[in-house]
Amino acid sequence: MRSLHKEYERIVLRIGSTPLRPLGQLTAIERTQKAIARSLERLATGARVSQFSEDPVAVSQSLSLQSQSRGLRQIVQGLNQAQGDLQLSSTALSSQLDLIAQIRQIALQASSSTLSAGDRAELTSQLKTLLTEFSRVSADSPSGTMSLYTGDSQPISFDLPSSSPGSVFKDTVGTGTFLSVQCISTADSEFIHTADLNSDGNLDIVTGDELGGVAVVLGTGQGKFSGQSTYSTDPLDGGFDIGDANGDGIADILLRDMTGRYLRGRGDGTFDAAEDFYSVVEGPVSALKGIYADFNNDGYSDLIYTDSSDLRLALNDGEGRLGETTVIETGRDSSFNFHTADFNHDGFLDLAFRGDSSALYQPYVYLNNQDGSFTQSWTVGSGGGGDDIALGDFNNDSHTDIAFVDAAVTQIYLGTGTGSFDFKANLSAHSARPAVAGDVNGDGLDDLISSSRNIFISKGDGTFTLSASLPFSSNLGNSLIYGASFGLADFNNDGVLDIFSGNRGTAIALGRTREVSAVNQITDISSAEKARDLLAILDKATESIQLQQSKVSALHSRLDYTSASNLVLADTLDEARSRLMEPDYALEIAELTRLQILQQSQVAVAAQANLSMQIVLQLL
Hints:
This protein is an alpha+beta fold.
């Protein structure tokens, strides 16, 4: 009995020394503790989900959003690098525009005929330096094709502008061939001249009927013509010229008829009725034999013509009338085909014409003495005659040459620059009168176009090669009229000669074009004419650089917009990922507070339970 009592006391003491907990209380406290730890982890790391197992869908979506955002930001980085290249290119183009402006200033200086050879050499040296700098800037600027992925299905591909001298300095030249023929007017057009009658920068066409009447069509500058106005005249056996009868700077139509009249231009492409012009000229005037031009450089049109016995000059009196005539040469009563050019480079127009039967129809050249008189400087002599004269520079020496055209043979005479000429060659294949000269293939050499629709391409030494035929269905002009009723002019302002022809109507054929490098012309200012040609090339180069600048600016704006758009999209993706993966801090803190209160309550309950068990044991 005694031993049983001791065992009872041992058991009671053991129970009293062990805290008593209510059923499940330990498990609840542990769960609360774990929840508090997770809440504290989310608040500390800013991540709602820390393990894939916690929310597999959210984690997968988060990784996808993160990948897209990083991709967009990498695209933006590539776009920024491309914008840097575009900025470098834009800066280079601006520098080249400045260089072109400096080159143009030198070309303007060289356009004056007063410069000495030494002056031109110094300016040429400056041009070479500027051209070298232009090449250096081009070499240092980025170039080539860029292809940028922007996130769209199609990448942005573009070429950084090439600003090398060869790609910037270009000239538009002809190919020596022509497009299809266009009918411009159905009015009779035995005589044709071109001029800008309304000062719009576009060539217009004036045609004349040998039976009387003049028609005018105005060019649009695109190889097209609008309207047609007609004016009554006496028979135009000798045709007409375009000049300035009254010195007002407006083109007039000077009639070579028997009544001595002209049509005063209004400056808008229309004309007043015919009025007297050379009524004070003594004796009958052969309507067929003469030419109007400004022979004394006073801005007024004068007249050289042949009467029944002599070659005469009638100077304009400065009031729109021709004064008394002076005899240039006696015995030139039946001369034809008058042409003017500055054969000796003295700044005054000289005279070339074909003699009459007594002179065996030979060509003559008379030099202007600058005092109202002329002196014969050259003729073929016993070399034979011809039907027409064409003037041009056939060997690119800046001297005017003569092609003396006949139905059987064309004789080529090269000018010396002094008013004399040296025989070069006979051009016998398919020759026909009349003929005109002009550079139709852009090689700087004047070629020959014959009325038989043949093109003779200059070789540069005064000889020619027969090239393609013109696209006209019949011979050009009217071969019965002395003086070409066809010619070459630029009707669409592309810098390439087009051809026009008349007879029973007027037709044109536009010249085909091609672009060639004009780098060699940049430093060629050996003459005022070449310097003026350079100005046109520089104007085209300026337009080319400005066009490239506008393209670079447009690309820059496009990349700016694309970069900004991608950044907005990347920020949106990041925000979506943040909402998916980051905790709501307000809710999380509230939940932590709840858990902490719960934890305190659970601990308090457990402590109270232990205290109650101790009281029970004390009672025992």
